[in-house]
Amino acid sequence: MGPNESRNLWISIGAGVFATFLLYSYSQEKRNEIEKAAGDTIRVVVAREDIRHMDTIYDNVLEIKEKLRKDVEPDAYENIQGVVGGIAAIPIKKGQTLTKNQILELGPETGMAPQVSPGKRAVTIPVSDDRANARLIRPGDRVDILAIIDSGRGVNQKREVTVLMQDVVILATGINVNNNIPRTIERDPSGRGLVQTTLTGDTRYNTITIEARIEEAQDLVYLAATNSSSLYFLLRNPYDRKVAPRVPASSAEDIQRRILPTGPSSQSPTNLAPNNGLLGR
Q: Where is this region: Disordered (predicted)?
């Protein structure tokens, strides 16, 4: 091997070693980048199954997964409770990260339907001042409902008052829905000016909408259809969620027994004022 060949050989070996070094350095750099990215993860809320547009979102359709921070949108939800109860503004696919611009809060744009609990129905009932606490009931309040029930005919006819439902949530008063914007703006009678009405103090409504199970709704519709004046709404303290044991219905006979004196010493009204000779003069 001549001097030139020997030199070329060493140059080739050196170039190979240098290329190997560069390749090794590049691979190590990329490996460090991947390891760093893989280690920088974040826990986010993703859809466990497809969520349709305007669906109310519950925890059974959500789950937590870890994703690379660089792949997650800045406004992604990091806990499930922050999403539950919201409304899907767009269809959300299974495995998709949920972000705040995809979720609507309950309000005018979502209507009342998302506020009805699963398994229950919204029922609208006509009301008046004397049956709805002078119309001081507001959306979000809770009430008990009394019903006047007539039974029998003729001399056997009987009227009773019974507790029909307890701890019932008010979904709406008139068109004022829970979580709605608390005001309306309407034209005045002349049609030229605008009048703003504050709904938090509005008592002009003639109906209230409540939440009820389907069998309760059936009873309510029957009573409202046969005698809308038979239903009375009793406003509850918002922190009182206790359901009292069912009490017996009240009738005229029951009230008389509880109020009027009983026993051998009790006397009829005609006996309370004995005839002392003054009567008939």
A: 245-281
**What's the CA gap between 218 and 223, in Å, rounded?**
9
What type of residue sits at position 224? A
**What pLDDT tens digit does each residue of the chain (281 aa) get?**
566 666 666 777 777 777 787 777 777 777 666 656 555 788 999 999 999 887 888 889 999 999 888 888 889 999 998 898 888 888 999 999 999 989 887 665 667 777 788 889 999 999 999 888 998 898 888 999 999 988 888 778 888 899 999 999 898 888 877 655 444 445 566 766 655 454 555 678 899 999 999 999 999 999 989 887 789 999 999 888 888 887 778 887 777 777 776 655 544 444 434 434 333 33
Give the separation between CA 127 and CA 111, rounded to whole angstroms. 22
Supply the CATH number for residue 86's domain.
3.90.1210.10
